[in-house]
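Step 1: inspect the first sequence and its tokens.
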Amino acid sequence: MAKSFFQRVVDIIQRIPNGKVATYGQIAAYAGNPHAARQVAYILHSASQKKNLPWHRVVNSKGGISLKPRHGYELQKQLLKKEGIAFDANDYIDLKRFQWEVVVNGEAS
């Protein structure tokens, strides 16, 4: 039986390595629905604790943290910095340097 979109998203998030980030849209595309970035955010919100997901490694398409200050922003930034991820003066991550590339059949995609 084919995996649900939910399960594909969970599987992908679990694979994001330490020191790398992925975007909501990237995860949605890898899971088979490139227009479902908001669904990825909902899955993260609803399943991060239950599934022990590295939620802090998921950022927006600009390399920024989407959580609001005093509502998880500081914690996410702290966890990412602890993994060696750097932020610029505007609090954005250089996606060319830190974005995770999924390797499929020996090729990055």
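Step 2: inspect the second sequence and its tokens, then contrast the two.
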Amino acid sequence: MTRFLSAMTPECRAALGQLADRTAHEEHVASIAWGVVSDGRLAATGGTGTLYDEGPTDEHAVYRIASMTKSFTAAVVLALRDDGLWSLDDAAATHAPELATVVGPASSPPITLRHLLSMTAGMATDDAWADRHLDMAEEQIDHIYAAGPTFAHLPNTAFEYSNLGFAMLGRAVQRATGRRVQEHITERLLQPLGMVATTWVRPQHDRWARPHRWRDGEQVRDWPTPLGDGEIAPMGGLWSTVADLARWVAWLDAANVTSPAPSEGPGLSAASRREMQRMHTYIGITSLAGRSCPAGYGFSLNVRDDTTLGKVVSHSGGLPGYGSNMRWLAGRGIGAIALGNTTYAPMSTMTIKMLDVLHSHGEVPATAPAYAPEWEAAAHRLVGLLNAWDDGTAAALFDDNVDLDDSLSRRRAAAAALVAKHGPLRVISLCPAAATNGTIEVQGERDSFNITITMEQSPFPGGPVQLYTISS
């Protein structure tokens, strides 16, 4: 079943549906619910397989999203930072004294909130264990803190994925505010964003995906019943739907659009949302769906510098009975979500393939140019100066290094020669790479080829031009 809410090409529609069916078959996933986020809304949805028995899936079916939960926990930690409650460089034990026993090897610095958010605390990767202890009680996890967890690295030296670290963040929030991080997430993020189907406990209705495992060549129920809410839930306890997660993806990515300014929205500033999506910890060259690229970890989000798609932000989730992923192209208004109900279903591979399908069918918008109104105004002034040189205009437009780098008299002569050869110059397009630099495409009156002018502005107030070069 595939449902499209936008004007996608029939070929793209068919390719997305075929990808979902093929993934479910080849990876032995009981069901997959998927969606495409475009321009801030859920633009296409589909589903294959069954939630349970013969129950079909769709964008409103509830799945456990596992470690995708971390992005919600991180958002609250940053929101409390923005409120002035703490600094990310505070030691976790400053706010939860019982965490003072979680100490790295000799010469280790105190573990900070920043270390926990960016996966640099150094504690050993604990996925298999944590996945079976989401509902751990406070007194149980306190024994682990008191005994001192195992460390794989010195803190602040390397990437090491730690679920226990997000339990520690949850504890810090609880001690600092008197309320569980789960409550903050629900009230500050889920409710304002209208994510009404996203909860910390299994839904009471019947439209939830039963956990499955592929074993001995057949799909079997992965009982016991999914674990409930507990001390480790801040790392992976949420249940959600494709429809709800589309709101989350759109809201996070909206912060990347700075032309002219992003919508602040509820819960967390645009600046802090961008901070989540910036690479804080370098992981290395990683491979996904057959291609390799540099990757790193932000604050609870993965960041890839993909050679085909550009900057890709994502996070996956995996638990016994479930696999999930959300992925989007930063600042381009396009993303993909896939939820499955078989143990560790490889939905991260499916979402990157979904974006590849969208890209190959022309459904991915080009990277938006930088918002640079002052640069654009200066660019027009520069082209006007080249057409009709005036030393007073040049002095007002240029920073003092321009005349020192190559005298204004020589520049005046070069401009005159350019216009004599090509005729008056006309701006064809402005292509800012940032707020203060970019390329001006111009064309002469007497010929058809372009003249490229690269221009950079000075950091001083008013942004005088500090550099321009001409190639024709």
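Step 3: confirm your contrast with the notes below.
The chain has three domains: 2-72+207-360, 74-177, 373-471. The chain is about 35% helix and 25% strand.
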